[in-house]
Amino acid sequence: YCFAVTSVRKDSVTISPALSGTSTVSKKDLSALANGTFYLVWQNVGQIPESLALNEKRYEVRSLQQLLKRASVYHGDINGSYDTSTVTAVREFQRSSSLPPVESPGRLTLAALTRFEAGRNIPLLSSNGNGK
Questions:
Q1: Contacting residues for 20 by C-beta, under 8 A, at least 6 apart
Q2: How far, rounded to the nearest angstrom, does the alpha carbon of residue 31 sit from its chain's CA centroid?
């Protein structure tokens, strides 16, 4: 059975489709009900390519560099070049986020960087149901 968390409040979440006639469930109840594999639904707002070659220049790389800068792992210029300093920042972000190290950003890295998008509030849910 699959359902999506569509909003999060302090101690509850809204899910779709509704479960037992209600679309609001406590985080504690959700963690008791849900087990197995969880998928993060995300949107690549900056249209950042998953695969980039070293020294490739693209406007979208600027978005990647801005996210890496907000994550405090990139200290270079926002220049749109997937240069060695950008690759190093991607690897550092992957390491600090316990993601598999790959040369290009890849889907997992881009999804994890979502939390650094300006104006986005990404709620966190944990297996213990308290959101921490």
A1: none
A2: 20
Helix axes 59-70, 84-96, angle to 10 degrees: 40
Neighbour tally for 103: CB within 10 Å: 13
Of 99, 58, 93, which is closest to residue 74 (Cα–Cα)? Answer: 93
CA angle centred on 97, ends 93 and 39, rounded to 5° = 120
CA proximity to 56, closest of 82, 87, 85: 82
CA distance 7 to 15: 7
The per-residue DSSP string of the chain comes to ---EEEEE-SSEEEEEEEETTEEEEEHHHHHHH--S--------TT---S---TT-B-HHHHHHHHHHHHTT---S---SB--HHHHHHHHHHHHHTTPPP-SS-HHHHHHHHGGGSTT-------TTSS--
Q: Which of 65, 126, 120 is nearest to 93 (CA)?
A: 65
What is the per-residue pLDDT across 13-67, written as a single tens digit (0 to 9) for each? Answer: 777 777 778 888 888 887 777 665 555 556 677 789 999 999 999 999 999 999 9
